[in-house]
Every structure is written in C-alpha cells, then in structure tokens.
Design goal:
The structure is a homodimer. Chain A is mostly helical and about 150 residues long. Chain A has helices at about 5-20, 30-35, 40-50, 75-85, 105-125, 130, 140-145; strands at about 55-60, 65. Helices cover about 50% and strands about 5% of the residues of chain A. A two-stranded antiparallel sheet of chain A has the order 1-2. In chain A, strand 1 and strand 2 form a beta hairpin. The first copy, chain A, starts with a helix and ends with a helix. Chains A and B meet through helix 1 and helix 5 of A and helix 1 and helix 5 of B.
C-alpha cells in the first residue's frame, strides 16, 4: 500500500512552495537541492502540477514556480486524486480490464471501496496550508536559501 | 494507490476457500483454473499464506489446501497487513531509509498516517466470511467443480 513517488514528490514540492514567504516563488533547482532529489524528475513533477492548475510558471530571470492558488484553498485529497494516476486498489477497480471472475458477487470489493473512501475522507479534511504548517522550532531561513 | 498483486491473489485464494462447502479443501490447480491465473504464482501465494497461518496443506492424493481457521475469525485487515509487504505510503513512513528532510516538522506525515489508519479500521470491521459472502444468485457448483 503505497502512493507513487510521483505523488510523494508532488506533495513535497507543493509543501515547499506553501512554506515560502510572499511572493512564494522558487526555482526547480532550489527545490531539487533542498530535497536532494533529481532535478529532471522534479521538472516532470512541476510540469504536471502546472497542467493540473496547482502551480504557475514564470519564465526568464527572476522567474520560477509558485502556487496558483492560496495553500488554504488546496485540499490534500485533491492533490492525491490528481497526482496518483492509479487509484485501483485491486484489479476489479479497473472495470474495463478486470479479469477476476468474482466481480459479480464479491463483497470484498465493497469493503475495499469503503476503506478507500475513508482514506480519502481524511485527506479531504486537510488543506495544503495545514500539511505545510510548521512548528515553532523550524528554521525558515533554510527554506528560502535552499540550504540545510 | 494500489495493493500489490500478491495481496490481491491472497484475498482471492482465501475467498475461494471460504466459499467451499465442508471440508473446504481445494487444490492449487483448481483455484488457478477458476481464476485463470498462473499456477506457479498461486503456489507462491499459498506457501506464504501457509507460513502466515491462514491455510494448512495436506499432501498426497485427495490432499490440497484449506483454511486453518474458520473464515469468521479471520479479519480482512489482518490479511492485508500480513500480505502487503510494504505499508509505507510515502518515503518517510520507512524511517530507517527516509531521506526527506521535512521529517522533523511535517504535518503531512500525520495526515497520511491518519488516512491509513482510517483505511485499516474499515478493513478490520470485516471478516473473510463476510468478504466471501455470496448473494442468492451465485452458482456454487462452479466453485467446487472449478468450472465456470
């Protein structure tokens, strides 16, 4: 039971942006260095997040990426639903490709659906602003400088 | 967000056994044929389920596999916890190997933990007997004969 690395990195990128002081702009290079992850991988994540309307991109010198909307209007559940390409817990969730012959009389499917709904209901309770919230001990300068 | 195919097949195998009339014994070949899945794959699943105490194996002619305990004493949550090798939703759930530097001040982790607990709480409500329950229209003869 895992979320994809793509979703994991999407959440981290958005949390980074949500924690920045106004105007909340950062470069991919800065975020990649902060998390010590592949810049190329993060470019793909950023492109996807831009296509989904979570971030906007400003080109040129002084440009970068920033949240397209306030962090307190972006739901964690919304992010996971849009970045997680496959929400099919088991084969029969993918009706067109299902081959399991229990399909017509399987209470397990209903059980798993109920569990997945409970999972998403929790994520829908929280916004990106809440997920990104810091405790009093956090060193904010580390975020804006991209340094540890 | 997916369960592994190993968990999917474990659940299907256990549901098959739970639906059988007494003494509830079946062969791997019969179950593989019923679901139209690889026999070799199912042998691995059955070995794992035997090691975890969900099924017992009887060798020789007339032998096969059967549930080690009544289906109404086996929780769906228990099956998923034991068959799903990786319950680490995101990297930081795996503390020894985590590289995400948000770890010390990340409310997202708490959010995801809460969601996973909600997921498992639903599965813990149901037993294998309930997951395997049939509606009135099911052709039981198809199960015991291994034929469609």
């Amino acid at each position: 039971m895992q979320l994809t690395q793509f979703t994991d990195l999407s959440l981290r990128l958005l949390i980074y942006l949500a924690r920045l002081p106004e105007p909340g702009m950062a470069t991919i290079a800065e975020i990649a260095e902060y998390y010590q992850i592949s810049r190329n991988h993060l470019v793909k994540v950023a492109n996807s997040l831009a296509n989904q309307g979570f971030i906007t991109t400003t080109r040129g010198k002084g440009g970068g990426i920033q949240l397209a909307r306030p962090a307190n209007t972006i739901g964690v559940g919304e992010i996971v639903r849009k970045t997680e390409v496959n929400m099919n817990l088991v084969e029969c969730f993918d009706a067109p490709n299902n081959q399991c012959r229990l399909i017509r009389n399987c209470f397990l499917k209903a059980t798993l659906y109920e569990a997945q709904r409970a999972f998403m209901t929790v994520l829908d309770k929280y916004t990106l602003a809440e997920a990104a919230s810091l405790d009093a001990n956090t060193d904010l300068s580390a975020l804006s400088s991209g340094k540890p």
